[in-house]
From TrEMBL:
SMART domains: LRR_CC. PANTHER family: GH16156P, PARTNER OF PAIRED, ISOFORM B-RELATED. GO terms for cellular component: SCF ubiquitin ligase complex. Gene3D superfamilies: Ribonuclease Inhibitor (3.80.10.10). Residues 113-251 form the F-box/LRR-repeat protein 15-like leucin rich repeat domain. The keyword Membrane applies. This is F-box/LRR-repeat protein 15-like leucin rich repeat domain-containing protein. The chain crosses the membrane at residues 78-96. It comes from the Eukaryota.
């Protein structure tokens, strides 16, 4: 998709948009909440690749946080390339590109992201610490493999609802990763959990609710290797998780928050094991654990 070299934000944009263009080099955070004065794009069909490029190319090199999750509907993989500055454009003063090199937090939920665009982005934005990719249905194992390979400072990864993720890419996870949100990753396997446990021994928070392909072995591998977990969400466990698997939670002696809701396999033995071992526990959710 060709972006006009000298394109400007449409005149129907609010006064704040022009403030953004003249003060872009000072910005460290940018999102597109509808109520924000300089992020209203009514009359131009919403936030598009062209509008985003118009903003970024005017100098957002100090941007450390970018959230596109509230306006993803008209963005394509081109927008992801814009963030990484992969678009090479020659202008009279030289080469234009390499935007957002200092990004630490990025939310692309709902944006069209594929393997090539995430690979390019991760090669450029190597300082990323937090990334959210909810409802990014084209992001698979290979795309995440590149992300984990290139972004060695990742601390927070959210891929909730990824229907194709099995966890093969987890062997590339950096040891800095302490927060994983894997809710309803329905194909996540025990082998994937083994990779995660081996690479991320400092894990603090993990959500594996609705990961219905996991078995007792996956839960055991997680709790044996990531014993520093403080918050665990294991709601709606799959049919191959038994009360024996839940008893493995007793390995997490530093656990403070636990969600076991919607698990009919929770019984007195499970609760006794957890209560005896997890002495720092302050929050326990057992909602809808009654047997039918």
């Amino acid at each position: 998709m060709a972006i006009p070299l000298h394109s400007n934000l449409p005149r129907c944009a609010g006064d704040g948009d022009y403030w953004l263009l003249s003060h872009g080099t000072r910005m460290t955070h940018l999102d597109f909440r509808p109520k924000e004065a300089f992020t209203s794009f009514k009359g131009i069909g919403g936030l598009t690749d062209e509008v985003l490029w118009s903003i970024l190319r005017r100098g957002c090199q100090n941007l450390t946080s970018l959230d596109l999750s509230l306006s993803p509907h008209f963005l394509t993989e081109f927008a992801v390339l814009c963030i990484g500055g992969i678009i090479i454009i020659y202008v009279c003063k030289g080469l234009l590109g390499k935007q957002c090199k200092l990004l630490k937090e990025l939310d692309l939920s709902g944006v069209v992201v594929n393997t090539s665009s995430l690979k390019a982005l991760s090669k450029s934005c190597t300082h990323l610490e937090k990334i959210t990719l909810q409802k990014c249905h084209r992001v698979g194992e290979k795309a995440l493999w590149w992300l984990f390979k290139n972004c060695k400072k990742l601390n927070h990864v959210n891929v909730e609802g990824n229907k194709s993720l099995k966890g093969q890419c987890f062997f590339m996870l950096p040891p800095s990763c302490e927060n994983m949100y894997l809710k309803e990753c329905i194909q996540l396997t025990d082998k994937g959990m083994g990779y995660l446990g081996d690479k991320c021994k400092n894990m603090k928070t993990i959500d594996i609710s609705g990961c219905i392909a996991l078995t007792d072995d996956g839960i055991l591998q997680l709790t044996q290797h990531c014993w520093m977990i403080e918050s665990l969400v294991l709601s709606k466990a799959g049919p191959n998780v038994t009360s024996q698997g839940l008893r493995a939670i007793g390995n997490l002696s530093l656990l403070r928050e636990l969600d076991l809701s919607k698990n009919s396999i929770v019984n007195d033995v499970v609760l006794y094991t957890i209560g005896r071992s997890c002495i720092h526990l302050t929050s326990l959710n057992l909602d809808s654990c009654q047997k039918e």
